[in-house]
Write a structure and sequence with these properties.
Structural class: alpha+beta
Largest sheet: 15 strands, mixed
Shape: globular
CATH architecture of the largest domain: 2-Layer Sandwich
CATH topology of the largest domain: TATA-Binding Protein
Number of domains: 2
Number of strands: 25
Length: 442
């Protein structure tokens, strides 16, 4: 075969290889495999109950209206909600520090002023967090807290004023209220405040300003059927990999769930659970606003508001936050610590401890009205007691005493009077005919 033919064959082979390469490339580019469609991944919903907003969680438990010659007060949710709804339309401006070291006498003097309304909060509320409820036109809101919020309309020719007061720290801020509608303010704040029941100030010299109901009060006693949230739902919500969690039976009233990082005790008799992640513990002092927001966000993530729980206490040093059970606008207390509240300690960017009940108030099977003595009568009985220093009492208020009827699976809420001494609430127990204790520890 001549050289001429060899070169021709080589050219033909080379051309065929190029054409094959182009064909294979085109096939790869245009190839569409006929895969079976994959099943869509299902999202696991870990929400136990509904999420809640700041204004639902941080609420006053009492409002006092001071007029020139009269003190009025209310704990009715309907009236309080009307006032809070009106407040949500305001804008505050010119936030200023008035005093940062007030004595209790100074605070009481401000609280006594006429033509104003005072909202009582159970715990110290960061102004930065309450900015979610009251809009503050200020780019530099201070990291300060308050537990008394005063709406002052005494200067009729000027804009009303809001005062943020802390009876704990003695800090006092004030701001001007920019009213969108003055007639709405008069109708939903001033007029509602003047419809409250008669209260009376208890005279105690230089002790904190204390007001209580002037007449006997009627409060419904509720009996609820006790429902439970399955603790496995909390296991699924709190552990990163529920399948890796091991269960063990400690005794007849206690179970424990745990993995390599955290553990959760379930106390089946008191219907409580205690979750702890030891590695998250932190000794640093928390910033109050961050601590409260992080805690609320954590509970919102798994919808942990199984009943009406409200913010009640915070300690930035121990990084501790509490939310108390409320029914009909009244706080619920119990002899068994923790069965009436959600308690959390925030750790190093994660939750360290989370204690809470897992029962819920289900069907209200009975409601009976109960008449309690007036707050004035209770105050005088406490004044006459030899078991306490009356001037140390910071507050006297009605509430519910929680009774567990395990045999019938019932929860009974008994109306009672309570009083506050140094962050601790005590149940007032009148002296009976058998000469029982006048004061009972809550």
């Amino acid at each position: 075969m001549g050289l001429k033919y060899i070169e021709t064959i080589k050219s033909i082979v080379l051309l065929l290889l190029v054409l094959m390469s182009v064909m294979f490339t085109f096939t790869i580019w245009t190839f569409s495999p006929n895969y079976e469609p994959m099943e869509q991944m299902q999202t696991v919903d870990i929400s136990i109950a509904e999420k809640k907003t700041i204004d639902e969680i941080i609420k006053p438990y009492k409002i006092i209206t001071n007029l020139k010659d009269q003190v009025l007060g209310s704990m009715e949710s309907r009236k309080i909600n009307t006032i809070l709804s009106e407040m949500s339309t305001w804008q505050l401006k010119d936030l200023q520090l008035v005093n940062q070291d007030m004595s209790k006498f100074d605070v009481a003097k401000v609280l006594r002023q006429p033509s104003q309304m005072t909202l009582y909060f159970p715990g110290e509320v960061p102004i930065l967090v309450y900015d979610n409820v009251l809009m503050i036109e200020d780019n530099n809101i201070p990291e300060a807290t308050f537990n008394r919020l005063i709406i002052d309309w005494s200067q009729s020719t000027q804009l009303p004023t809001v005062h943020f007061l802390s009876e704990t720290s003695g800090v006092h801020y004030q701001a001007q209220i920019n009213l969108p509608n003055k007639s709405s303010f008069l109708r939903n704040v001033v007029d509602v405040g003047q419809s409250f029941a008669e209260f009376a100030e208890i005279d105690r010299g230089n002790a904190p300003f204390l007001t209580v109901s002037k007449h006997p009060i009627t409060i419904p006693r509720h009996t609820y059927y006790q429902e439970e949230v399955n603790p496995l739902r909390f296991r699924d919500a709190l552990f990163s990999d529920p399948n890796a969690v091991r269960r063990s039976q400690v005794d007849s009233n206690e179970e424990e769930y745990g993995d390599d990082h955290a553990f959760m005790k379930v106390l089946t008799k008191t219907k409580m659970l205690k979750y702890t992640m030891p590695a998250a513990e932190s000794q640093e002092i928390a910033i109050p606003s961050e601590l409260l927001v992080n805690t609320i966000d954590f509970i919102n993530e798994h919808g942990g508001w199984t009943d009406e729980f409200r913010y009640s206490y915070m300690n930035p040093i121990s990084r501790h936050v509490e939310f108390q059970l409320y029914v009909d606008g009244l706080p619920v207390y119990s002899e068994q610590s923790g069965t009436n509240e959600i308690m959390q300690k925030w750790g190093d960017s994660r939750v360290y401890q989370y204690f809470r009940p897992y029962y819920t108030l289900d069907v209200n099977v009975e409601t009976v009205d109960v008449e309690l003595p007036s707050g004035v009568e209770v105050a005088e009985a406490l004044r006459d007691s030899d078991d306490l220093d009356f001037d140390l009492i910071d507050e006297i208020t009605p509430g519910y005493f929680l009774i567990h009827d395990d045999n019938q699976r019932l929860l009974i809420l008994q109306p009672c009077w309570y009083y506050l001494i140094k962050d601790n609430w005590f149940r007032f127990m009148p002296e009976g005919p058998s000469g029982g204790d006048e004061i009972g520890l809550e």
